[in-house]
Design brief:
The protein is mainly alpha-helical. The chain is 69% helix and 5% strand.
Length: 190
């Protein structure tokens, strides 16, 4: 048996070095500025890790981190089952499969920096469809004045924008399973 030559991995080394350099240089700039207090352009004061100790003991930071983890968990609890259900409901073959794939992927084509603006306009009660509909139904919806309304709006916005990615990944995984397994599962059920 001929041994496998692993020297081809050395060809990846220049890319790894370039990426490491482009990642480490900005990181070192951040570290440099995080340990210095710039009082004026001519004078800098070294503060060391004092700011890090102060921030890491801050209760507001801990509360914000817990809120972010709760939000992320809520998003995942909605997006993953919804994406799986959407993938299971999508047609497997024919022109309908292509049409559904394009429709599902539409929200992923919207740039990340435009999504917030779209939802800000959509959610406003004076011009937005969602805000006007909720107002007409008697809901006191104000995402700029209510923390809960803002939380729900961002949750819905995130689910709308990223659930198609989950659905497409699940759909690709389902389509990668050979038909023989589907037939075997169908025969076992019958």
């Amino acid at each position: 048996m001929k041994p496998i030559n692993q020297k081809a991995w050395l060809l990846v080394l220049p890319v790894v070095l370039c990426v490491a350099f482009s990642a480490i240089l900005p990181l070192m700039t951040i570290v440099n500025y995080s340990v210095q207090d710039i009082i004026s352009p001519e004078r800098r004061v070294f503060v060391g890790t004092e700011w890090f100790r102060t921030v890491l003991r801050d209760g507001e930071l801990h509360d914000a981190l817990l809120r972010q983890l709760g939000f992320s968990l809520a998003v995942l609890l909605v997006e993953i089952p919804l994406g799986i259900l959407l993938a299971l409901a999508m047609p497997a073959k024919g022109w309908k499969a292509s049409a559904v794939l394009v429709i599902v992927a539409l929200s992923l084509l919207i740039p990340w920096n435009v999504v917030g603006t779209i939802w800000q306009i959509f959610g406003r009660t004076d011009i937005g469809l969602l805000g006007a509909a909720l107002d007409a139904m008697g809901f006191d919806y104000n995402y700029t004045g209510s923390a809960f309304d803002a939380w729900v709006t961002v949750l819905v916005m995130d689910v709308w924008h990223w659930t198609p990615l989950v659905a497409l990944l699940c759909y690709a995984g389902l389509r990668a399973i050979p038909d023989a397994y589907y037939q075997a599962a169908q025969a076992r059920i019958a």
